[in-house]
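Reminder to self: tokens first, then the designed residues, so the page reads top to bottom the way the pipeline ran.
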């Protein structure tokens, strides 16, 4: 049986860079949807952050708003990592238009919502899926995830283009 080789230094460095580069797009993407979520929660009484609260209640009997916010930021960062990593692998995509990245980010937000919020979490918590509950249970979370994806995509694009420009300038010197 062939022994697995350890991750090469360059690959490990690339992963570390992805972790670093995903931080601000993830955090700012998470922050971007907080005001939207507050409006939905307090004025429209919509279903927002239901699974964030349920997940925290597995660990803490009464989660505080601060703890929920910290959890939201950690999850926002975590979901930005695969997007930034994938974008870094697709070097030809760095210079594509803002519209391309806006649509790619919207698709990523839709993917997160579809896989996690509309399927995985309802199954894990033995809840009905949003599709079974109706449009009122779908649109608030779906819209928030799409906005998150767009913010992450546009910020990741900007960040990678700056890195690319810095490398070009450094090679010219």
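Designed residues (173 positions):
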């Amino acid at each position: 049986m062939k022994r697995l080789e350890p991750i090469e230094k360059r690959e490990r460095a690339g992963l570390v860079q992805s972790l670093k580069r995903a931080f601000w797009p993830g955090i700012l993407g998470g922050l971007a949807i907080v005001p939207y979520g507050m409006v939905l929660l307090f004025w429209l009484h919509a279903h927002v952050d239901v699974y964030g609260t349920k997940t925290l209640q597995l660990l803490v009997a009464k989660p505080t708003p601060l703890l929920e916010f910290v959890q939201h930021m950690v999850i926002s960062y975590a979901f930005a990592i695969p997007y930034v990593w994938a974008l870094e692998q697709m070097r030809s995509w760095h210079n594509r238009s803002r519209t391309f990245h806006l649509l790619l980010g919207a698709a990523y937000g839709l993917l997160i919502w579809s896989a996690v919020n509309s399927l995985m979490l309802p199954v894990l918590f033995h809840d009905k899926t949003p599709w079974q509950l109706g449009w009122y249970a779908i649109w608030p979370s779906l819209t928030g995830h799409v906005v998150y994806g767009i913010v992450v995509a546009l910020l990741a694009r900007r960040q990678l283009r700056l890195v690319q420009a810095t490398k070009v300038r450094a090679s010219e010197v």
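The mean pLDDT is 87.
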